[in-house]
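Re: [ENG-882] Designed sequences occasionally contain unexpected residues at chain ends

Forwarding the minimal case from QA. Structure tokens:
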């Protein structure tokens, strides 16, 4: 029996995008998918300012029938952020396995079973301009909330990979999207983030693809 070949590819680096700037979008790496049968794309998003987005940010999944050139990109799927209220954030004071202690939090801020973003702002100077994250801020992680039993604790389903969560790190509202795609008739693929809101929150995001290449 043939063994399927699967590949994981970063299509959008972990990065920061400002709102209301001249460059209001980020274009991911163009991936040659001409030899791939299918792929799953996972997109991660978090607000990193306590401001309402007048226009919510979106992920655009685009395919191109040509092997080169940028004339014929077509958007085949769009995922728009559903965070429409001002983002909640709390400073982290300590962490033990999957228990995050904060300065104050409620279940209404970070509901059970929903994504959350742990931003490392203590071990490195946070990025404020649009561009890829660097240094310790790349430790920032997306997780899912299991429970918020009181006003100072957030229990995650999993223990964070990084063990650096302590004073002045932050937790933020977040979203995770995923799509499964048939690529048999496509040549190239890319993911674009659009954040054209004149007023709103800067965002952190990334996107990854797992592809079924051959058997």
């Amino acid at each position: 029996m043939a063994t399927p070949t699967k590949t994981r590819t970063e299509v959008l680096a972990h990065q920061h995008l400002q709102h209301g700037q001249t460059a209001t979008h980020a274009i991911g790496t163009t991936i040659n998918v001409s030899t791939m049968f299918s792929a799953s794309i996972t997109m991660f998003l978090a607000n990193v300012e306590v401001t309402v987005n007048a226009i919510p940010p979106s992920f655009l999944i685009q395919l191109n029938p040509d092997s080169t050139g940028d004339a014929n990109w077509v958007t085949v799927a769009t995922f728009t952020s559903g965070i429409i209220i001002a983002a909640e954030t709390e400073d982290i004071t300590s962490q033990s396995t999957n228990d995050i202690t904060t300065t104050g939090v409620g279940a209404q801020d970070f509901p059970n079973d929903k994504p959350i973003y742990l931003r490392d702002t203590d071990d490195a100077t946070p990025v404020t301009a649009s561009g890829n994250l660097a240094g310790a801020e790349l430790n920032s992680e997306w997780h899912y909330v299991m429970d918020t039993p009181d006003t100072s604790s957030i229990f995650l389903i999993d223990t964070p990979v990084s063990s650096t969560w302590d004073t002045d790190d932050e937790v933020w509202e977040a979203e995770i999207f995923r799509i499964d795609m048939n690529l048999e008739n496509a040549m190239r693929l890319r993911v674009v983030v659009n954040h054209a809101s004149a007023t709103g929150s800067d965002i952190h995001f990334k996107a990854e693809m797992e592809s079924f290449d051959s058997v």
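QA comment: On inspection the terminal residues look reasonable. The chain has a mean pLDDT of 86. Proposing we downgrade this to a documentation issue.
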